[in-house]
Amino acid sequence: MHPTRSALRFLVAESEPPEARERRRESVGRSSGETYVETLLRLAPGAECHRIKPADAGAELPAGAALSGYDGVFLTGSPLHLYKETPETRRAVAFMRAVFASGTPSFGSCAGLQVATVAAGGTVRPNQRGYEAAFARRITPTERGRGHPLLAGRPAAYDAPAVHTDEVETLPEGAVRLAGNRVTAVQAAEIRFDGGVFWGVQYHPELALDEVSGALRRQAGGLVAAGLAGSQDEVDAYADQVEALHRAPGRRDLAWRLGLDEQVTDAATRRTELRNFIEALGGPRGAAPRRP
């Protein structure tokens, strides 16, 4: 299947609580779900994209729609803490269990990976090695990951946009860890549960660099408290460089200062996992990505 097939139908599940959704819009002009829709349409022009907010009370699929009617479901990042029992986390996990049961292939980034983990019986916890902010460094595929289609095209070590304070503690039974780094053991994984398959990453292949800089500014207080910056001004200065690289991705001086290469600076390369997931859908409509 070519990723530009016009018949593709995608459902984007945005689990940001309303307050976080509005803060993000004020910061970068779009919610996490809106970012996903925009990115998916770049990868699959002509696709039909619907958006749902499963953590919100009363959230429903579009009229007449069913989970099984979509080619793929995409779970966005979110500030939800999946180790806490709240109405929002319960609704998000229940939605993901329904996705698994529907058999529709799914993909998630950051909290999306964590939601799928908990829904399938794994656990999530606060980061044990501290805040991973701006970029996850030296992500390394596992032996299984090196041959897995989710990571096709990624080198032996790579960086990616990432901002998270939580991590997967234990993967569900039968899940496959595909990549990790020094800070976060589970940077990518495949989870199969109740007839469904999920591919996910702890980082953010969907983000543009202006959204990375926006996240840094929104979370400046946490970055200072974690000792990653000495002040709000230092966070702003770093974010300014990331923002400048967004505007001029060919600037080698900025890439050098930030320690980045084309795995992050090139938009097409940055979206590798999303493109691989869409391509792996393949075959009959709704067919699941397969294990290598």
Automatic annotation (TrEMBL):
Compositionally biased region (Basic and acidic residues): 18-28
Keyword field contains Ion transport: no
Molecular function (Gene Ontology), one example: hydrolase activity
Residue ranges of domain Glutamine amidotransferase in the record: 66-210
Annotated keywords: Hydrolase
Disordered: annotated span: 13-32
Protein name from the UniProt record: Gamma-glutamyl-L-1-hydroxyisopropylamide hydrolase
Species per Swiss-Prot/TrEMBL record: Methylobacterium crusticola
